[in-house]
Amino acid sequence: MTERQQQPDTAIQRLATLTCVVALLPITIGSLVTTLKAGMAFADWPTSDGHNMLLYPWLNDLKNTDKFVEHGHRLAGMVIGLYSIILLAVALRRRASRSIQAWTMVILVAVIAQGMLGGMRVRMNEQTLAMIHSITGGLFFTLCWLFGQKVRREGKPAANENVQTGALGSFLVMALPVLVLGQYVLGGFFRHLGTMLHEHIGGAILVTIAAVSSTALLLRSGDHLLARRGRWLLAALLVQVSLGILSWITRMGFPLAGWVAVTGAPQQVLFCSLHTVGGMFLLATSASAGVEFYHAVRTGRVSSLNTVVPEGGLT
């Protein structure tokens, strides 16, 4: 391996960070589409009311919120598609490592698949497909987040911390992304199909407990990379819990405070949409923590004890 290849590629690192930002465009607008129930503003795809998607007079729909938002979602999908092609081309051009090239190729394939799934949802007018489209959107954002983590780690020397942690805590950190994904799916059932509300609330309590425990382990690990993942996880959790409470109040009301929910109110649309995006951030940060923890164990930075130390709780 040459000296140039050993050094992290600054251009690739910047593009990896930008990947998450660009991915948020269709994801955020898509969550707004779901909140407004505007997914079928157009009955055709890939055309929009018979127009080529790029030639549709989008700005004429400023007063037609449903069509304006839905077509904006489609255009944002084209932006992330074009960006994914550029990302792969740059990785190939700069002769990035095979693993980085593979990641960029997976991202491009995922974008294409996500676009096709969104198109099928419209053509079949199927709400279940809309829910799946939302869930895979969260998985795609997580993929982009992990890609950034992969790129930033490449070329850096391995840390030499030797941290010991309990087996239960180790399992919890690596199982947390699965719990968050399950909670995200339950949220999708409620948003798209109007079911699983109580299960979603119960899942929120379970995920909060698991995330707080995982955060405590990561912050107390003594490993600077794991502690950083813990801070991101804690921030995502606090934001998501806050958005969940605000979504509940604006959607269900809060009689004790005299708050009456109004369907379609701006604050309801805002907080319910952001709650979906917040769920994606929580999924991404929990997956990032789990992957980093696994990497730490595999490289010997962290060793797992067979028992948890009673005095310190989760260590």
Arithmetic mean pLDDT? 88
SS field, number of helical segments: 9
Total beta strand runs? 2
Q: How are helices and strands ordered from N to C?
A: HHHHHEHHHHE
Shape label: flat
Radius of gyration over C-alpha positions, nearest whole angstrom: 21 Å
Oligomer: single chain
Largest sheet: 2 strands, parallel
Q: Report helical residue fraction.
A: over 70%
Instruction: Give the N-terminus to C-terminus distance in angstroms.
Output: 38 Å
Low-confidence stretches: 1-6, 305-315
How many structural domains in the coordinates? 2
Class from helix and strand fractions: mainly alpha
Strand content: under 5%
Tell me the strand order in the biggest sheet: 1-2
Question: What keywords describe this structure?
Answer:
2 domains; 2 strands; disordered N terminus; two-stranded parallel sheet; 315 residues; mainly alpha
Would you give an account of this structure?
This protein is an all-alpha fold. It folds into two domains: 1-157, no CATH class; 160-315. The chain has nine helices and two strands. The protein has helices at 3-6, 10-36, 65-93, 98-124, 127-153, 167-193, 197-219, 224-252, 266-298, and strands spanning 163-165, 302-304. The protein has a two-stranded parallel sheet with strand order 1-2. The longest helix has 33 residues, at 266-298. The model is unreliable at 1-6 and 305-315 (pLDDT under 50).
